[in-house]
Design brief:
globular; 11 strands; alpha/beta; seven-stranded mixed β-sheet; 252 residues; single chain; four-stranded antiparallel β-sheet
Length: 252
Amino acid sequence: MWHGEYRDPRLVEVHDAEHPWGWEDDFFMRVLADRMTPRVLDLGCGTGRLAIAMAAAGHEVTAVDPARACLDAARRRHGAARVRWIEGSFEALPPRSFDAAFLTGHVAELLVTDEEWSGALHALRDALIVDGRLVLDSRDPAARPWRHWDRAGTERAIVLSDGSTVVAWTEGVPAADESTVSVVHHYLFPDGLELTSTAVHRFRDEDTLRDSLRAAGFRVDQLYGGWSREPAGLSDDGELIVIAIAEPRMLP
C-alpha cells in the first residue's frame, strides 16, 4: 500500500527534499480554518509537515502513518512534540475522536482495492463526530497524468540538505482500463547507487468518489479540481479535492 519512499530512511530524506511546503498545504490550512476544528486527524501523515503546522495553529493533532522511517523523521522536526504520533493505519483510529480528518498527498490512490478503500472510509467515518469533515485529494483520472510518467517526462535533480544531488525519474504502466497504474520511482545517488520504489495507484473518478463516500456515511459538501477551488475538470492541477461531512448513523 505504501511507497518505499516512506520506509527507507535514504528515500525519506529524498522525498522531503523534493516536497517542501506547497500551495496544497496552504489550501488545507485554509480549509482547516473555515470552521472550529479543535481535534484533527492526519492519516498517512508522512514526515509530518502538515500535521506540525496544524498543531502550531492551535489544533490538537493526531498523526497516523504505517511507516516507521517517516515517523522517525517527523519526530525530529521542530514542533513535533505538539503532535500525537501513531504508527499504524486506519485500523488504529479511535471512535468519535476527531472534528476533522485529512487524507492528503494522494494517499487515497494507494488504497487500491474496493475493500481497502471502503474500510478506510468507514473507519474515518467512525473516527469523526457527526458533522465532522473529511478532506482528501486524489488525481482526476480524466486528466490522465500517467501519460507523462516516463523518464523523458519526469527526470529531475533533487538537491539534498548536504548539497549532494539525486537524479530521479518515474515510470508508470497503466492497466488496460486505466483504473490503476503500476509505478516505479528511480533514485540515482551520487555514488552510483540506484534505489527504486514501486507502488500501484488507483484512480477514482468523481462519481466513484461520491458514491463510495455516500456508502460510508458521508455527504460531499464541496469538490474542487484545483488548489484555487476551481470546479472539477476546469483546472490544470488535475485534482479531485473533496470536503465531505460525516452524516448521522442510521438506526437499524
